[in-house]
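Quick one: structure tokens for this chain, please?
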Amino acid sequence: MKFLSRPPLAIALGAFVIFLLARFVAGASAPEFAARLSAQAPAVIEEAGGDGQVRANYISPRGLPSRHPLLTGGEPLDETTRAEVAKAVANIPGTGGIRWSDSDMMAMSGERVFRPLHCQEDVQALLRARTIRFEESSSRMDTGSRELLDEVAAALRPCLGAIIQITGHTDNSGPEPGNIALSSERARAVRAALLRRGIPADGLRTRGVGSRSPVEGLDPADPANRRIEFSVIATEPIRPTPVDTPAPR
């Protein structure tokens, strides 16, 4: 054909054909790839201490096969075990970012090094004297707590760029499924309040743990267990691997 004699057009057409073939092959292999990752996950979850409680679902939010699993279950596990489970799944070759179903926390494949930052000490100092309080059985904060959050936001601002984990707690006065849901709602309410105060969304994570981690020395039914805790950590940069390279779009 005459127009193929023009090198730029021929090169462009060839590149387009290669692109279509690549997308077709990737799409065709996605279910098999996700199934292979899914088959490896139970063994590493068991070894990390989450056997029978955590499941890795290699499905995207749109219901398509994905290398980015959603971890479900594991609510009774402590934070250390959950972190080990997430790390173990993330280290399965080919696995990408990981998300817990009950949290915004994301674990990427590759090693991560966490370092507590002084911001956490500053926030803890504020919360030792005062408490972020909510209306009973509600995620609505009282007026005094909104003023306290102004100070919390100011204390967090020097460490923007770190990861700020917001954890909600309750006492054990109600059924635990409801406690977990309420503590999660309260953590999200604090996150929303910090967003309104200028803390960037990409550094905020939330988690609700219900009544399973009472304050040391307190009766689990003590109302003082209804609290919000902050963990502020820095992460070392992750070195991308070929599997972490985004696909063309």
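The two ends are 30 Å apart (CA to CA).
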